[in-house]
Amino acid sequence: MTVSHVSSDITVPQPSQSVQLTGVCDIPSQSSGFRFNHTMLRIKDPKRSLEFYTGVLGMTLLCVKRFEQMSFDLYFLAKLSEAERQNLPEGDDLAIYTFRQRGILELTHNYGTEDDEGFSYHSGNSEPKGFGHICFCVPDLSAAVAWFDAKGVAFQKRPEEGKMNNIAFIKDPDGYWIEIVQADLMAD
Amino acid sequence: MTVSHVSSDITVPQPSQSVQLTGVCDIPSQSSGFRFNHTMLRIKDPKRSLEFYTGVLGMTLLCVKRFEQMSFDLYFLAKLSEAERQNLPEGDDLAIYTFRQRGILELTHNYGTEDDEGFSYHSGNSEPKGFGHICFCVPDLSAAVAWFDAKGVAFQKRPEEGKMNNIAFIKDPDGYWIEIVQADLMAD
């Protein structure tokens, strides 16, 4: 039978440095080449969101897909390194590149929400809860906080607030939480 | 004044291959080294989620942070390549590595939800909407669908359903949507 044939798992062990816990399985060969490509958030106003994600967080808009008959557009952004920016493919190759990367942010704009004064999206951090936040790591948390202050970014939690002084949370234009961490402060 | 000094932007232009639209800004030097590190989702039952994300999608559990006094744990996973698995750092270096990567998935478990039969999280795709989905790219969409069928994974949308036959949506154990795409089918 096809199903039992496909499910006769060929696995490779998890790396010895990784965490072994109840529930953790070996890696199925069928997942070879899978990649965690993107996270999608709905946004009210693309102009404001593009200003924030490019002009504050320094992302690059790689791809836009417009579905005018269904009244929505999709924006795909990445925070690229200088080397990546200098070697970006073009055209169709850029679209394929976009869907092969890790760490892509997809923003969905349903037409008209930007003109609806009372309209807002749900951040996931009040009831009903679910999604919590996205996170950017930064080389220097204090410098990043000064930069966000200079740009008038709203904070959900400044580093000095609460118990965890090595992390901050800012808010994007829709109120989604963005954690800010300095990786070398995150050892246990 | 500090604020105006910090905000005197030194920028680099967006790459010419990228999309220029109203709202897109040049890249501020202050964002140098920023990286889109992770996306956080709350989960009801860590055993079920770890089985799914490791045993079906082939991820690796890199780091667990336990906050017993606050009754929650955090699980950090990545879908690594074979070369990455063979070169993983250990211990504190692995925690720092985790917070420097792109494409990390953070799962938050608040104690007790796994034993609360009626408890569930909000996927973001019914009212109130916000977060939409995460996405994995795969080398072969048909083979991935056969694998998910063999593992009994629930589909939100099979490739042949709806208008877009080059994408599928599966559901994770909490009902969060996971888009599945084959990158080379995603050119415009």
Strand and helix map with partners:
The structure is a homodimer of 188-residue chains.
Chain A: H1 2-7, E1 11-12, E2 27-28, E3 35-43, H2 46-55, E4 60-67, E5 72-78, H3 82-86, H4 91-98, E6 104-110, E7 131-137, H5 141-150, E8 155-157, E9 167-171, E10 177-181
Could you provide a short overview of the structure?
Two copies of one chain form a homodimer. With 188 residues, chain A is of the alpha+beta class.
Q: What does this protein structure show overall?
A:
Two copies of one chain form a homodimer. Helix content of chain A is 21%, strand content 29%. Chain A contains five helices and ten strands. In chain A, strands 3-6-5-4 form a four-stranded mixed beta sheet, sandwiched between helices. In chain A, a hairpin with a 4-residue loop joins strand 4 and strand 5 (72-78). The longest helix of chain A has 10 residues, at 46-55. The termini of chain A are far apart. At the A-B interface, helix 1, strand 2, strand 3, helix 2 and strand 4 of A face helix 1, strand 2, strand 3, helix 2 and strand 4 of B. Strand 7 of chain A pairs antiparallel with strand 3 (35-43) of chain B, so a sheet runs across the interface.
Based on the model shown, name its key terms:
homodimer, 188 residues, alpha+beta, 4-stranded mixed beta sheet, 29% strand, disordered N terminus
> Uncertain spans of chain A, ≥5 residues at pLDDT below 50?
1-7
Radius of gyration of chain A: 20 Å
Question: Fraction of residues of chain A in helices?
Answer: 10-25%
Please report which band the strand proportion of chain A falls in: under 5%, 5-15%, 15-25%, 25-35%, 35-45% or over 45%. 25-35%
> Most extensive interface, residues per chain?
A-B, 108 and 108 residues
Return the average pLDDT of chain A rounded to an integer. 95
Q: What is the H/E string of chain A?
A: HEEEHEEHHEEHEEE
Please identify the oligomeric state: homodimer
Helix count from the secondary structure assignment of chain A: 5
The end-to-end span of chain A amounts to 48 Å
Tell me the overall shape of chain A.
Answer: globular
Strand order of the largest sheet of chain A: 3-6-5-4
Major β-sheet annotation of chain A: 4 strands, mixed
How many strands appear in the DSSP assignment of chain A?
A: 10
Derived from helix and strand composition plus strand pairing, the structural class of chain A reads: alpha+beta
